[in-house]
Design brief:
Low-confidence stretches of chain B: none
Shape of chain B: globular
Number of helices of chain A: 1
Mean pLDDT of chain B: 92
Structural class of chain B: alpha+beta
Radius of gyration of chain B: 13 Å
Helix content of chain A: under 10%
Mean pLDDT of chain A: 94
Largest sheet of chain B: 2 strands, antiparallel
Structural class of chain A: mainly beta
Number of helices of chain B: 2
Largest sheet of chain A: 9 strands, antiparallel
Shape of chain A: globular
Order of helices and strands of chain A: HEEEEEEEEEEEEE
Oligomer: heterodimer
Strand content of chain A: over 45%
Strand order of the largest sheet of chain B: 1-2
Number of strands of chain B: 2
Helix content of chain B: 25-40%
Low-confidence stretches of chain A: none
């Protein structure tokens, strides 16, 4: 049945499947005083592309928050543009670097990030874009060139610890 | 800008107080993990005090 639906239409599973856009996969509450949080079984062949939201995280210090896909600690490439209201903008080119910076934590206020992943569970490269805001923030465009059919990811503080908040994973319906 | 020293980091994050998390399992770092984690941060730029951050 074609979208948009009308009053009285009887929707089948196929109708509902093709109507969904972002589909919730799982969420993970961040524990207390953790340096990193790994979320397993996040990616599968069900979806090609994913969105990860980190929200309401409390940090012990102002630092970079990084994203690691699976066990891949190198072969990341891209550009990280970070800013602070007090010290301006910094651009960093990542050339075969470690896990990509996806946010800068805040201490007085909650920290958050939006991360888009293209093809994390496929055998090829994974495209990564991320942004986070506030008085300090990050825009990141990059790629994990190692590939590896990832199923998990890890968010980690470059320094200090995080407490509370939630990480939510959504899949984009392939249609 | 000032940089983190080992002594400062140890005072802020004593052994046994830093955890790692995999899904719902939160466990304290072992002493070896904690020591390596502290070492990774030594020399990083210390953020300035910022009530707006």
């Amino acid at each position: 049945m074609a979208f948009p639906y009308s009053s009285g239409d009887v929707l089948t599973a196929a109708d509902l499947n093709q109507s969904s856009g972002l589909v919730f996969v799982k969420s993970q509450t961040i524990g207390s005083g953790v340096s990193s949080v790994t979320v397993t079984d996040a990616f599968s062949s069900t979806f090609t592309n994913y969105r990860i939201l980190m929200a309401n995280m409390d940090a012990s210090t102002i630092t970079n928050v990084t994203l690691q896909l699976g066990s891949t600690t190198g072969n990341y490439y891209g550009l990280v543009e970070s800013w602070s209201y007090s010290s301006g903008v910094t651009q960093t080119l990542v050339n075969n670097g470690g896990p990509m910076t996806v946010a800068i934590s805040h201490t007085t206020f909650d920290s958050y990030a939006t991360i888009e992943l293209m093809n994390p569970n496929g055998s090829g490269r994974t495209g990564i874009t991320a942004h986070s805001g506030g008085l300090r923030g990050v825009i990141m465009i990059g790629e994990d060139t190692a590939g590896g059919s990832h199923t998990s990811f890890t968010l980690a503080m470059a320094s200090g610890t995080m407490t509370g908040g939630k990480v939510r994973v959504y899949g984009y319906n392939d249609g | 800008m000032a940089e983190w020293t080992r002594d400062e980091l140890v005072a802020l994050y004593p052994d046994g107080t830093v955890n790692v998390q995999i899904d719902d399992e939160v466990r304290p770092m072992t002493t070896d993990e904690w020591s390596a984690w502290i070492d990774e941060q030594v020399g990083l730029e210390k953020p300035a005090d910022d009530p707006l951050a």
